[in-house]
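Morning F.,

Quick status update on the modeling queue. The single chain you submitted on Monday has been processed. Sequence for confirmation:
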Amino acid sequence: MKNVFLGFPEFIRLGALALGLSVQMHVFAGTGQNAPASSLPSLPADIAELKFRDFFVTPVDPRGPEMTPKLLALDGRRVRILGYMAQQVAPHPGFFMLAPVPVNLADASDAMTDALPPATLFVHLPASQASKVAPHQAGLLVVTGILSVGKHEESDAGISTLRLQLDTPADTPTQFSP
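Structure tokens below.
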């Protein structure tokens, strides 16, 4: 995995992208010129862009969140999404959680559903790395894989509603330490 270091304006812009917001950044520090707009690479035709705002219909119905037609239509397709890896004291092997905002889950005995935003995606590592624990990566991550919608019991006995089976680049496989 490559580490990407961003200046503050790029960090704010990418944070807004993760939430599905469109922002125009202007920097007035010293030069008075606009900062160049950084953006994600264009997508191949077989990958759809997914944003956390695409997860649930707003406003939320009194009966609870309802998945958007876009999210349901992307079930089983390759998607790309930008978000923050949830930091856990005791992470579980084989998957990590991606959220629209930074999240720190302090204790394994705490109920994760109480601390996680409703729009949280369980990102599963490739089968060859299912026994590995993904080390926490601070900052925004861009992940690509196959989206799966529907309730599923995870290896930690928790229930997920949205999952992404992470792609492994053929030329540079991502390796996580045990």
